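Key idea: predict the complex, not the pieces.
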Amino acid sequence: MFRNSYDNDSITYSPTGRLFQVEYALEAIKQGSASVGLVSKTHAVLVALKRNAEELGSYQKKIIRIDNHLGIALAGLAPDARVLSNFMRQQAMSSKMIYNRPIPVSRVASEIGDKAQKNTQVYGKRPYGVGLLVAGYDETGPHLFEFLPSGTVLEYFGAAIGARSQSARTYLERSFESFADCSAEELVLHGLRALRDTLAQDKELTIQNTSIGVVGLDSPFKLYDNEEVGEWLEKLGDVGSSRGRRQAEEAAAEAAAASAAAEAADTDAPTTDAPAADDEAAADLPAEPIETDD
Amino acid sequence: MDHMPENWGRPRNDVYGEYQSAIHNAGQGPQSRTQTPSITGTSVIAMKFDNGVMLAADNLGSYGSLARFTDQERLIKVGNETVVGISGDASDQQYIELLLERLLIEDNYPQDGHHLRAPHIYEYLSRVMYNRRSKIDPLWNAILVAGKNDDGSPFLGYVDLLGVTYSSPSIATGYGAYLAIPLMRKIVSEEADAKNVSEEQARKVIDECMKVLFYRDARSLDKYTVATVTLDGEVKMDKNVRCQNMNWRFAEGIRGYGTQKQ
Amino acid sequence: MTSIGTGYDLSNSVFSPDGRNFQVEYASKAVEADGTAIGIRCADGVVFAVEKIVSSKLLVPGANKKIQTIDRHVGVAYSGLTPDGRHLVDRGRSESYSWRGTYKVPISVPTLADRLSGYVQAYTCYSSVRPFGVSVIVGGVDDSGPHLYTIEPSGAFWGYMGAATGKGRQAAKSELEKLDLPNISARDAVKAAAKIIYVAHDDSKDKDFELEISWVSTSETGGLHQFVPKELLEEAERLAKADDDDEDDDDEMDED
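Result:
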C-alpha cells in the first residue's frame, strides 16, 4: 500500500481538498538553484545561480530571452522550462505577426499559467516541474511575474524561487520599498545581494555561476553571462552569502575571543561570549540539493 | 430484377465493371468561391491633418448599378480611438465588423491597461485580408484604418482584398483613388504637410472630394459620414452630411445617355 | 466522512455504497479554503466582491485581479483553486464567442450559466479528469435584466439574489440576508459588498487582504462588466472599515 494514496496522480483530491501531486511539483522547484527577480519604476531584473553537474561540464542556462522586451529565469526542471519558453516565444512572435505589438508581459505570463493548469486536471499528464520568473517591459512599464506548476501566476515587486530562496525573499522583503526609484545598476546589485544569500556556506558568486538579465525603458532584454558578469560582481564587492559571512565573522570573533581569553587568562578581563547557536544554525542548513537543473 | 432504385438506369456492373460513384458525386463543376461582390460600397477617403485623421464614406449600398440601400454606415469606430472605413462588399464588411467586435472583446478581458490601437488593428486586418486572398477566397473590400500611432502621431493605412498594404498621409479607395487623392494631395502630399493643415481646412477638402465623387462616381450618394480621430483620443462621427452647393445645370448638355432623342 | 479510506474516494466518477461522489466533495473542500467571494443582484445589475488574501507583501497591490469578465456583460468571481477558475472562465469566453458568431448577439446570462454548469458537470463523470475546485459566481445583465448564479464543483447551479462562497460564506450569507434584495441600487450594493467582505474576513486566520469589487449595471456601466471606479472603491472600503471597527468596539464593550 502506498504511504499516501491521494498522491499518486494530479487528478485526485485529498479529503481536505488538496492536490498532492501539484504540491510535490512545487517542491521540484526547490531542487533547482535559486533565481531572483525584481522591478523598479523603469526596469525589471533577473539574476540566477547556475550549476554544473560536474567539474568539466558546462553550467545549466538559467535565464532565457523570450523577446526583445521579455525574459524568464527558471528553477526546477530545465527541460520543462524549455517547453514553456518555446511556447512563450511562439506567443510573442504571433503577437508581433498578428498585431504588430510586443506581447504584454501579463498576457504571456497568464498564457503559461492556463497551459499549466491543464496538466493538473487531466489524467496521464503531470504538472510542470519548474517555476519561472517572467520579467519584461511593455507599455504599462516593467513587470515581474512568478509562474508556478499549479498554474498560479502572480505579479510581484520582487520574487525568488529555488533552493534556499527564502533567504533571498527575506532580503527582498526587507528592501523592496526602495526598489521603485532604483537605477538599473542599483536594481541588479539588489538582485545579486538577494541571490548571494541563497548560496551554500562555502560558495561564492562567480562569473561562471551567475547570470543576469536586464530589461527596461529603452533597453531591450540583455543577458549577462561569463566575463560580462565580472564587472557586476566587482561592483557588488562581497560575493559570499551574508549568512556565510556572518558565520565567518563570528568564527573569527570566536578565535579572537579565544586568543584574547588566553592572553587575559591572568587578568580578570571579561571574555567575549562565543555564540554557541552558530553551529546549530550551520547544522540546520539544508545540504546542497541534487542537481535537477541539468 | 434489381430492387435498388439508385442502380436503375446505370451501366450494368456485370458488363462495364463497378460504377464509379465519384462521377455521381462530382457536383456541378469545379469548386468556386466568391468571384464578384454583390452589394457594394464605393470610395472611402481619408487624410491626416495637424491634430489627427479625417475620413469620409457615403451611405450607399449599390446592387450593381442599382442604388439599393441608402443608409449604409461604412465608417466603424473600433475601440475608443480608431476608425475603420470599408469599401467593397457589404456582407464581407459585416463579417469584418464581427471579427473586430470579437477582437475588442478579447482584448478587454485581461483589464491590464493594454488596448489595441490603430497600428495593431491595421496589422490584424492586413493578416486577415492576406490570409483570405491566399486561400483564394478574398474578403472583397478595400479598407482604411485611421487612428493614433504608438508615439501619438496620426496613423493612416490601407489594405485591400489582395492583401496589399501601404500608408500615406492621404489615401482613398475605389474611384476616390483617381478623383479624391489629387485634391487631398494639394494640401497634404508629404507626411510633413499634415502638420500645416487644420481640422477646418481638412474638412473643407474632404467635403469638396465627396462632392466631386458624387458628381463623377455613378455608384455614389450625396449623403455621407465624416469621422474625425483627434490626437487627444477623441472620435467624432458626423453623420448624414449632405453635399452642398451643387450645380447640375451642365447635365442638360450631356448627350448620348438617358432618354433624349438627340 | 466515515467512508474516507474505504477506497471509494480515490477516483472521480465513482459512487460510494451510500451514493456519494467523494472526489466532488473533496473539491468543495478546496473551495472552502479560499478567500470569500460574493455576488449581489441589485435593481438593475450585479455587484461582485472578493476578499483577496495577501500572502506576501512583495505582491503588487491592485494587480493580480481575481474577478474576471466573460464577453462584455458578464462578470465572474470565484473561490477555490484560482487556476481552475481561470480555466472555467476561458470556457465561458469560448461559449460566448461562438454564440456571438452564430447569432450576432451577446449570449444570455442564463444560457451561459447553463452551459458552464454542463461543462463543470462533465468533469465529475470521468475517472480521467478531476472536478473543478471552484465555486463560481456568474452574473450579468442581458435583455431580460440582471441575473446571478452560483455553479458548484458538482455542476449544480442555482439562481441567487445574493450569493457567497469561500471561507467566510456563512457570515457573508447572513449579512446578505439583511439587504433589501433585489431592490438595492447598484451603488448601495457596492457599499454593502465591501462591508460584507470586511465582516466575513477573519482577522485571526489571515492578516492582510485586498478588497476587489466589480459591477455590471444598466444605469452605472451601460450594461458592461467593469471594476468599480477607484473613488467608489475607496469610499466603500472606508465605510466598511469604519463599520468593522465600530463592531469591534461594540464587541469589546459587550465583553466589559
